[in-house]
Amino acid sequence: MGRSPRWRPRSLLPRPLRLRRISLWAIALGVIGCLVLGAIDPSRSEEAPPPIDFSQFPAPQVHPMPEALRRWRDQPKARSPGALVNPQDDHYFDQMVASPLGHLVWSRWPVTIALVPPTVAPDRWLTAVQQAIADWSPYLPLELLPVGSAEPADIMIQWGNPTLRTEAGMSRAANARTTYEFYWDRRDLQKGDRPRLAHRMLIQLRADRSPPQLLGTARHELGHALGLWGHSRDRRDVMYAAAVAHPAHLSIRDLNTLVKVYEQPTRLGWAIAPADATSRAPALLD
Ligand SMILES: [Zn+2]
User: Residue 237 — pLDDT band, cuts 50, 70, 90?
Assistant: First the structure.
């Protein structure tokens, strides 16, 4: 008797479009985080992804920019006398790293966030995280789910004591750590719809820091989760890599970089292509 297959293709898709689970989950892990001093190179992930056959995935396309971010982009910005650059051009997009499937752009709004606070003295941690969410909310629609909500969130912010691996391979305590993974989103599918390629984020955040540092770290990690996958070299930006005594508020450069990220094509958020467009796709059967 033959072994039964470990995974049976879902009947939703016609046979040529069935994907092996491994093809998505094997490339699922991306890690970024900030140490107390110094930072991990965001281009390094803890597990190198295997080669990907991109013929299986939706083609990269640009999503419509959310209204709030577009409004901010299009508002007139003051230029200081003698400034050498247009404020719109003042960004650090060249420090951003795309995932194997493209920039980590959200396209289904609002982005939902769930919190798992520390069990002991959660108030200080919750205050910082909720303030960080409020700081980003004017630019991207975010929705905080009630504690204990059964709905799976796009971004999970969880109390924890994460560690990161340094370039020398040593394990060090970190203020926070953010990871992403990919999955096929089958929510709200109508008959004939195809699943979307989606991502979700997990932020692990320590609680034993001063309130300003807690807020600065929460704001920074939420920046990663919202698509800023990389670090600024300027300590006046929220996405500066190292922890500082007085963390920055959102800067024009942070927001300009966010705009640039949301102007990039990505495979994320798009449905798998129709059968006729992928007739060349090889080896998709399990
Ligand atoms: Zn960081």
Answer: very high
Distance CA 254, CA 231 (A): 10
Q: Ligand 1 centroid vs 231 CA: distance in angstroms?
A: 6
Q: How far is the CA of 37 from the centre of ligand 1 (A)?
A: 11
Q: Does residue 110 have a cis peptide bond before it, meaning omega lies within 30 degrees of 0?
A: yes
Distance 217 CA to ligand 1 centre (A): 8
Q: Whose CA is closest to 97, among 232, 201, 228?
A: 228
- Average pLDDT (197-204) is 94
CA of 177 to the centre of ligand 1 (A): 8
| pLDDT score, position 180 | 92
pTM of structure: 0.80
- pLDDT tens digits for 107-155? 999 999 999 999 998 999 999 999 999 999 999 999 999 977 878 899 9
Cα(241) to centroid(ligand 1), Å: 5
Task: Bin 186: left if φ > 0, else alpha if -120 < ψ < 50, else beta.
Answer: alpha
Separation in Å, CA 93 to CA 36, 78, 89, 148, 233: 24, 21, 10, 36, 11
Return the structure tokens found at 285.
């059967």
Closest CA to 218 of 136, 147, 279: 136
Distance 201 CA to ligand 1 centre (A): 14
